[in-house]
Structures
1.
Amino acid sequence: MLLSVGAKGYDKATVQEVLERSGISRDRFQRGFGGKEACFAQAYEMAADRLCAEVLEAGREAESWRAGFRAALATLLRTVAEQPLLAKALLIEVRAARGQAWVKHQQLTERFARAVDSARRQPGARLTTTTLTAQFVVGAIEESVAAEIGAGRAATVERLLPDLAHLAALNYFGEDEAWLELRSPDLATAETVAPGEPIE
């Protein structure tokens, strides 16, 4: 379902195409899902949960918040580059689908925002940041990535890593630390703001 939606868009994707891709009968599909919206919602939940877990795990394995943020973001961007149809379904077409899939999208967006918000507990974090800061950062990442997918540039989306990492560091730690994110990925990952918790 997600690949069909990613290729044709939610409105144009059909149950028949899903049946042909999967090889299941229409009766079995109806018993299992009832319709396109429910099928998409279930597929969306499974794929989005898996991606969320992979992104957050990448962040947890790092030695600092900034390195964790970069690792998590790199995982997201790599997935988009390698699986553009899936990414389009998860980040763009869910807006057309709405329903339970959109509810799940919002829940995961909030989960990402809570993880990013852990930056406020790090040494050197700006005192002016609030929970809205994390929502802004997560929203900016989603919109930037969605714009690249929509423009047919998913294959090169990983080039956004330095700029998006700079955006996050700028909002939480100021320009003196943020400029490091515009350097090479290896250098920026190796150098940390200060000892602290990885992104959660």
Note: The domain at 41-190 is CATH 1.10.357 (Tetracycline Repressor; domain 2).
2.
Amino acid sequence: MVDFKVVLSDPQTGRSYKIDATSGGAGAFMGRMIGDVIDGAALGFDGYSIEITGGSDHTGIPARRDLPGRGRRRILLSKSAGFKPTHDGERRRKSLRSSEITADFVQINAKFVKYGEKSLKEYFEPAAEEVPATPVSEEETQEAQDTVEETPEAPAK
């Protein structure tokens, strides 16, 4: 099966999160088009909806929403997605990938359009585990200080 790097953007906070979609998660993207909305449960985000906004293949060629079908195409571009002209009237033939998600994609860009009950912080930020503090007796503290005082210092070079 194919694996994708999925960059999920949160429009409410402006933050982006990178996850790896393998097997079932990647299968949810296969055959979809840029602009399609998928259920977030496929990636482990229950109650969320995710819209595909773009992507690129292994050579970095971007996908374009208005190119139907599969594969790459070389098209003549003026100012638009995939090309920024350096002077007025410049046009250039560039390779672009069609909008259908295939196994050739490496990265998929997406954004959250519907939010679930659980916050995104809970999904992406690791929970800080609290370690119970063990009380230290005065004897243990004194022993630790004595061992520090007894250690000889290394000679200066």
Note: The two ends are 59 Å apart (CA to CA).
